[in-house]
Amino acid sequence: MNILIGGEAGQGLATVGEILAKSLGRSGYYIVVTQSYQSRIRGGHNTFAIRVSSQPIWAPRESYDLLIALNEETITLHQKELTSSGLIVADQGCTVDEKNCIRVPFGHLAPRPLANVAALGVAGALLGLDHELISLTLEKFFGKKKAELSKENQQVLQAAYQWATTQPLSLPKLPKISDPPQRLILHGNEAIALGAISAGLKFYAFYPMTPSTSIGLTLARLAAEMELVVEQAEDEIAAINMAIGAAFAGAPSMVGTSGGGFALMVEGVSLAGMTETPLVIVVAQRPGPATGLPTRTEQGDLNFVLHAGHGEFPRAILAPATVEECFYLTYKAFHLAEKFQSPVFILTDQFLADSYRAVEPFTLEGLTPVSLLLKDQSYSLPYRRFAFTENGVSPRLLPGLSEHLVVAGSDEHTEDGHLTEDLEVRMKMVEKRLRKMEGIKHEIILPHFEGEEADLLLLSWGSTKGAVTEAAEILRAAGQKVSTLHFSQVWPLPTNHFPKYFLGAKKIISIEGNATGQFASLLRRESGLAVSHKISRYDGLPITPDYILRKLGEMNLW
Q1: What tens digit of pLDDT does each residue of 296-311 get?
Q2: Residue 125 burial (CB < 10 Å; 0-12/13-18/19+)?
Q3: 221 and 339 share a domain?
Q4: The whole model's pTM is what?
Q5: Domain check: are 426 and 473 in the same one?
Q6: Domain presence at residue 364
C-alpha cells in the first residue's frame, strides 16, 4: 500500500509521517519513505510518502492508495496519482468534489495545532493499526514533554481513531503480522551516525546544510552517552580543518556536508592528502550548481568528489544503496581511512538521507573500533612520520603520546616531516602516497550482480539500487531477460571484475540521478566499455521503478 501525506511546512506533516512510519515498522511491516519538501520554514507544498508491505520492498512508487491532505492544494496536486480504489482523507471544509473522500471534522476533533495528530488517528484506523501501538509511538516521539500536552495528544488520537471507525468508506486492511519482528526504524543519516560510532568516532564537525544536517543532530543527541565531541563550526572551512586537527591528534574524525559546503572544504581535502591524515567525509548530494534545489535529491557530485583537491593523492568513494549499507559502509570508511591514512568519502543523497526503512538490528559482533596506537608495526629511529615504505603507508605515531617528535605540514616534506624543495624527494613522496592506492584496491567492494546472461543489463550506483531491482523484477515477470549490476563503491573501480558482465549483455542501460551519466562515463574512462543507453533523472525527484519502465518504453525496450 502506498500512502501520501501532503500539506504546508509548519502543519506537522513530517511529524505525522514519521510517527505513522514508525508505527507501521513496529507492527512488522517493511517501509520505504520518501520525503519531498521545499526550502521554507512555513508554507510551500511538502509531502511525506510511505510505501508499506508485509514483504520486502526496495523503492518508492508513484501512485497512491491513501492520500492524507492537510490542505486543499494537496488534493489538487495529487488526486491524479490515486489508484482507482484510492481514498482521500481531507478536512470537511474541503471544496474539492471527490466521491472517494472521507471529510474529517478536524476542527471538532482537535484544536488547530493538533490537526496532524487527528490525521494520524484517522490514518491508523483506516489502515487497521493497533491503537495502543500508535499511542505508544506518539508518546515516545514527543518524549518527556509537559504532561498536559501529552494527555491532549492522546485524547485527540483516541477521538480521531474512534471517529474513523464509524465511516462508510474504508480501505483494504493491511494483513496482520503475528509476533512482529523487532526492527530498527532509521533513515540513512541516522544509520551513518551509528556506523561512525561503531567504528570509534570521537569527533564530528559540521556546518548545517541540507540534507546532511541530521547526521550531526543524531550524533549530538548521543554525544554524552558515547563520549563524542560534536562541533557546529562557523563554516565548512573551519569544520574540515577542525576534523583534520582532531584526527592528527588521534581522534577518529568525520565531517558531513552537501555539494555547496564541500566546495569550501576542498582545500582541506588536499591538506588531509598531503599530511596523510585519516578523515571520513560525507557528501549528501542535492541538485546544483550553486544553491540549486536545496531540499531535493540528485547524484550530480560524483565527478566533483572524485577530483576534489589539488595535486594527486589516494582516496576511496563509497556510495551506500540502503540504510543498512549506510551503517556498514561508514564503518568500513573509517577503517580504510585509518589503514591507508587518506581521506575516504561517503557519497549519499537527499532521498536516502531522509528515507526511513525498517531494518534488522545491525550485527555488532566483529565490529571493532579503528586502532590508533602503533602496536606491532616496527619503525626505525629516529622516528620519521613519512618514512618511505613499500606499500606507501608510514608508521603513524600520535603527537604527545610517545617520546618521539611527530612533524607534519602542508608543504612537501622529507621523511621526518620538515618542508623541502628537493625535487627528487618530491617525486619519491608523490610516488609513496600513490602506492597506497594499490592497497585500497585490494579492499574494493565488488559490484553486486543479479540475473544471468541477458538481453538487458541495468547498471546503477548508490541509492538507485532499489528502483532498479524492482524494475528488473517487473521486466522478468513480463518475460524479458534482465540482469542488474550495482556499484556501492564507485572509486577505485575493479576493472578486472565487471567487464565480463558488460560483454555478456546485448544492451547496457545506465540509470543515474544526473544529466550527463557521470558514472557511465567514469566506467568508460577506466575500462573502455561503453553503455548502450542512459536513463537520467535530474528534476530533483528520486528514481522509481515506474520512471525506469517509462524511459525503457520510450526506447522501445519495454
Answers
A1: 999 999 999 999 999 9
A2: buried
A3: yes
A4: 0.96
A5: no
A6: no
